[in-house]
Description:
One of its GO terms (molecular function) is hydrolase activity, acting on ester bonds. Residues 59-333 form the Calcineurin-like phosphoesterase domain. InterPro entries: Calcineurin-like_PHP, Metallo-depent_PP-like, PAP14/16/28/29. It comes from Capsicum baccatum. This is Inactive purple acid phosphatase 16. By secondary structure, this protein is α/β, with parallel strands linked by helices. It has one domain: Metallo-dependent phosphatases (Purple Acid Phosphatase, chain A, domain 2). It contains eight helices and 13 strands. The chain has a seven-stranded mixed sheet. It binds 2-acetamido-2-deoxy-beta-D-glucopyranose (5 copies). One 2-acetamido-2-deoxy-beta-D-glucopyranose binds at residues 266-267, 269.
Amino acid sequence: MMMMSPFYLSIIFFFFISLILRSILTVHSHDQREFHRKISLRPTLPEGNTLHVRPGSSFKIAVFADLHFGEDAWTEWGPQQDVNSIKVMCTVLDLQHPDLVVYLGDVITANNIAIHNASLYWDQAISPTRDRGIPWASVFGNHDDMPFEWSIDWFSSTGIPPLHCPTSGSSPSESEGGKDCSFKGTTRLELMMNELKMNNLSYSKLGPKALWPSISNYVLKLSSTDDPESVIAYMYFLDSGGGSYPEVISNAQAKWFNRTSQAINPNSSVPEIIFWHIPSQAYKTVAPRFDAHRNCIGSMFAEEVASQEAEMGMMKLLEGRSSVKAVFVGHNHGLDWCCPYKKLWLCYARHTGYGGYGNWSRGARILEITTQRFSLKSRIHMEDGSVHSEVLLSSTASEE
Ligand SMILES: *[C@@H]1O[C@H](CO)[C@@H](O)[C@H](O)[C@H]1NC(C)=O
Ligand SMILES: *[C@@H]1O[C@H](CO)[C@@H](O)[C@H](O)[C@H]1NC(C)=O
Ligand SMILES: *[C@@H]1O[C@H](CO)[C@@H](O)[C@H](O)[C@H]1NC(C)=O
Ligand SMILES: *[C@@H]1O[C@H](CO)[C@@H](O)[C@H](O)[C@H]1NC(C)=O
Ligand SMILES: *[C@@H]1O[C@H](CO)[C@@H](O)[C@H](O)[C@H]1NC(C)=O
């Protein structure tokens, strides 16, 4: 009998090994196909878009609006405002212990930031929340990527303050041409990528590419810890533009909202809550005039609504969904009301930052979602600890 040479033995050995491997891999990919088929039958959101709340307890959100970090860094006043804003946030976080913080745009005043990387200021604004281990989600306002504006004052007797024009790595002579001192700004995409890169507590998203240059468009799901299938609420975050492009929620964004909400909440059985920065034009129609506050609840009625430039279909869709309970915006520092509009509520946050115009006292809007039986309550928590303007937003007050 012929002995098999080691060469043939090893060929037979590898033949069997490859058979085994192939059968494992086929089974595995078959499982994956099954898995994906199941997912596509019932559209759902990935784990990175899901927040959890213990059954029976409530879910609390603190909304920080218009922080405007990074103003006038060359003065003593500027950095002091950021310190003050951090104090406001710490006070609210330590007294309210929210489960989520929403950064509602104008986190920084980019048109005032004379350094290359505005993420440095963005990061400072996020830090009180991150330091406490609280998750957050952010949307852009019109100031976050606004092009740098040279102050005209600097060209008179005050002179141009000492600026940091870092050399971009290579030889110092390259930067002498001044290109490092052109402050082209930090784009929405860069700001968001920097936020996500460093922060595993951030629930912000880059948004679908088809909607760019509009970036912060995404939806988060709030579900119960004991049953992830039972969704308590959907929270939509939209980029209302401004800065590097017009102040508007585009038709494409409206269509994205329509598609998404139809897919994940087809029969409107789950309540929906909406966040963006610049009020839509509908805010003008409900704004209290001449002290006639009607059914509005708030403490500041100090300005006119500064709305988006156009309405391109978003409000029509929101009005048409019985599940949409409220929209929250910032932008107007002198307004903090909630007014009923059709079957939902249009709400302002409360100016949280010491940056930005206006010297009204600072605070934050708090939202509280109860889970046993859904309700959405809100109030404003001031820097001095006082609380006011409590309102129940899950009832449709406009049906009077
Ligand atoms: C900008 O700053 C952020 C935060 O400090 C940092 O993570 C990022 O790497 C910086 N980007 C550049 C290009 O320097
Ligand atoms: C998140 O990042 C921090 C440090 O930045 C780290 O200590 C922590 O373990 C991270 N958590 C997770 C869940 O990755
Ligand atoms: C929203 O989606 C529905 C169903 O998918 C469709 O009938 C409707 O025309 C859409 N509305 C808009 C404004 O896109
Ligand atoms: C609504 O849809 C969900 C699943 O998408 C289903 O469980 C529920 O029974 C539906 N409710 C109504 C009133 O049709
Ligand atoms: C802003 O308000 C505070 C407290 O009400 C006051 O002390 C301060 O002087 C005001 N600042 C300006 C610039 O009006």
